[in-house]
Design goal:
The complex is a heterodimer of chains A (749) and B (152).
Chain A: H1 17-22, E1 37-43, E2 49-55, H2 57-61, E3 65-69, E4 101-102, E5 108-114, H3 117-125, E6 128-133, H4 140-145, E7 157-166, E8 176-184, E9 196-201, E10 207-211, H5 216-227, E11 234-238, H6 254-264, E12 268-271, H7 274-280, E13 286-295, E14 301-313, H8 319-329, E15 338-347, H9 361-379, H10 383-390, H11 410-420, H12 423-428, E16 436-447, E17 458-465, E18 471-477, H13 484-496, E19 503-507, H14 524-551, E20 558-561, E21 564-567, E22 570-576, H15 577-586, E23 593-599, E24 606-617, E25 623-633, H16 640-659, E26 690-695, H17 717-729, H18 740-747
Parallel strand pairs in A: 1-12, 10-11, 14-15, 18-19, 25-26
Antiparallel strand pairs in A: 1-5, 2-4, 2-6, 3-5, 7-15, 8-13, 9-10, 9-12, 13-14, 16-24, 17-18, 17-23, 20-21, 21-22, 24-25
Helix pairs in contact in A: 5-6, 8-9, 9-17, 13-14, 14-15, 16-17
Chain B: E1 2-7, E2 10-15, H1 22-29, E3 48-51, E4 54-57, E5 70-72, H2 85-92, H3 102-115, H4 121-127, H5 139-151
Parallel strand pairs in B: 1-5
Antiparallel strand pairs in B: 1-2, 3-4, 3-5
The chains are: A alpha+beta (749), B alpha+beta (152).
Amino acid sequence: MKKDLNYVGRTYPIHDATQKVRGSLEYLSDMKLPKMLYAKLLLSPIAHGRIIKIDTSRAEALPGVIRVFTHLNTPKKTYSRYRIIPDQEFCLEDERLLTEKVRFVGDRVAVVVAVSKEIARQAIELIQVEYEALPVLSTPEKALDDQETKIHPEGNLLHQYQLKLGEQLPLPDDCIDIETKTNTQKVHHAAMETHVCLADFDSSGKLTLWAACQGVFGVRTIVADLLELSYNKVRVIKVPMGGSFGGRQETILEPITAFLAKEVKHPVKLTLTREDTIISTMTRPATSSRIRTKVTKEGILVDCSVETIVDAGAYATSSIDNTYVMSKKICKLYRIPYYEHSGKTVYTNTPVAGGARGWGAPEIMTAIEIHMDAAAKRLSMDPVELRRQNLVHPYDFDKSSHISLGNAQVIECLEKGAEAFSWSERFTRVLDQGRFRRGVGLACAAHKNGMYGGFPEHSTMTLKMNEDGSFILNTGLHELGCGTITSITQIAAEVLDIDLSNITVLEADTEYGPYDFGSYGSRVTYICGACAFEVAKRVKEKLLECAAYSLQKPKQYLECKNGRVWVLGNEQNSISYRDIATTAKVKDNTDIVVTHTYHGTSNPGAYAVHFAEVEVDTATGRVRVLDYLAAHDIGKAINPGMVEGQIQGGVQMGIGYALYEEVKVGNDGSILSSSFKNYHVLNAPDMPTVKTLLIEQGGDEGPYGAKSIGEIAFVPVAAAIVNAVNHALGTSMSNMPLTPEKILAVLNK
Amino acid sequence: MQIEFKINGKEHNMNVPSTMRLIDLLRDELGLTGTKEGCGEGECGSCTVLMNGKAANSCLVLVPQIRGQEILTIEALEKDGQLDQLQESFIKNSAIQCGYCTPGMLMSAKALLMVNPHPTEDEIKTSIAGNLCRCTGYNKIVQAIQEAATQD
């Protein structure tokens, strides 16, 4: 690895920080266009039923209402909000713009377009709908048991997998069997900006969408195919957004907003309230995983069998792939001679599940890490020791994908983390017996770096040099608030050896920008960052060639330093980037511009081990997180301050996942936590200080050795907290979230 | 209704519906979109402004309540193009990610520092207890406010 880095490895604020502190950054929810109209959705109040009658006449008569749409006057064509590329597998087209059959509380029934938000809101209340109610299948168990009621015509079992890896060998006699069952719940992403979309269809027949999304090309594919427009007639522009966390991965509001703009021939803006965002967009899927392992007395995992059920909610979206991904994760973390996993994806009459930070990893890692603690307890082993014996080693092969796990430093995270956290002292401390009881817990986690091995994986960027020596990098990137633009700028700045202020990195635009799959799958730093590195390297070569011509020295005698090209060994002889670019353009008829497509050829694991200390109030059931340490195998931190921020944010979200957060669904399918009044997001007083420990050993193909952070930061949190609570109380709870009611119920048993 | 009030030092006399919320007045009528809406029920704090120096959720305030009051929004935090110490500190401490909660956080922190220039860590946390952030885990925000307070 290069040692003397000038820009990579230093902390910079997010690129638009100054605009953000001034309140001057225009988010999508702030945007207004001339002659813009406002849309409002009518969402189903019942979880399952058929619309028998729908009367929109009173709404249509309200002054200021432009149009009202229902299933009767919208296309019947089905689509999948999950599709990224044409002909993609496992994208079930089971959704319509507006539905005749409602499948969950929050399903889209009608939409009003009006001249103001207020009129649109009033008009929605004037629409009268008569439903024929159908039996509500509010859980996967009910959906699988009920043979009569079908949420979709194909039945309620969407898909099932069976995976067997390795060879089942004769077991040693002294093996013990461990079995656990872990339930994880639906949660709301809770990005602070609610879902919003803006569309315009102009008189030339071109559709423009301003999207707060994670992948403009996926949005374009879905919208263009649905509205039967060619891809050159649909422009999707990524605009600033207030967070995502996977909640804007799928194409949710864009199809209906685009349709409305096309019909009314005006710009249309659709803004959801918080309640509508919670119930009608996406949730993290609810899952249940039964894990059975056989472990030797010495604590070696011999075989592991997992059965998972994923609650897809009312539409398939990404849940089939999510189940598939869940079935493969454990092999990135532990060496297990024989591993089998069966997974079922099930429709229910509940909010739609989809992309969520970590994408399958938090759900299955929570289950396996709660299981590992149960195993350690049975064996009377220190949980650190049990894991150390079974974790993967650097350059192990991933049993499920047959590709290398790269420089997997999870054992290093475990050992360094345990030492920094004083794990053994805290773990062996005599447990409290009074009202307040402390305990410690840890969890290991594995995630990925991009999609290589299961999906096409490439990214394209164009880097051009301006006449004054500054640069513009045109990309298909999506800044979600994680600091992507800054870290990509740092990478380009490092290669070109020029201050960040001289490089502008553009975000995704389907019309003016190059292709990229989008910001998900922990692929941005590893894949897009490598693309930025490669394109900058190629521009630098061109720059040096032009400088060689001007300086009359061979290229190998030149070096780039701080915006100038120098002749090695001659401190006096140099030329500025400005002079190189201008000379090239004006005198040499040369343009310094490169477009490069980078192909991913590896997918190492990203690893973390988290340690938590909690205190449980046995009188109230409340849990406080007192101390927290997050050890991460990150390869190389491009922007350490933002890396820490990702980890701390991941811990905030993970504590909520473990203890409070749940989109609760009643037996009748009603949503019991549809506002921040009853959906508790952790606030500042409840948040512990999160210490971070970064293992930076590089060794993989990411830029400067960097690996992913945003998703993996969330993956181990819930298990670390749950394990700490179980340690404090001597319990074996695994039904998340561990609310005070659940804790008291266990204590009072 | 006809109503007089002062926003960011400027006197206004406007005719607006009496049911209008302050946040809508700011964003839709005056174009002050730095104040953000995250929940519309006073739970997230994204819409925090100062009303006579006190932090308030502008989504819970109806226009008649601001009669004769002095409102300060995020747009007024900088003075003569110079960022406030808090704004500088948020930038320096990587306390900003998506930035949607940032204006509200800054206004709550400002309200605290105006009455308590040297708060403890717990006082800082309490002052932003009504401001939700989903990106940062608050650690760097608390640190930024602490640092701004130390430098004052």
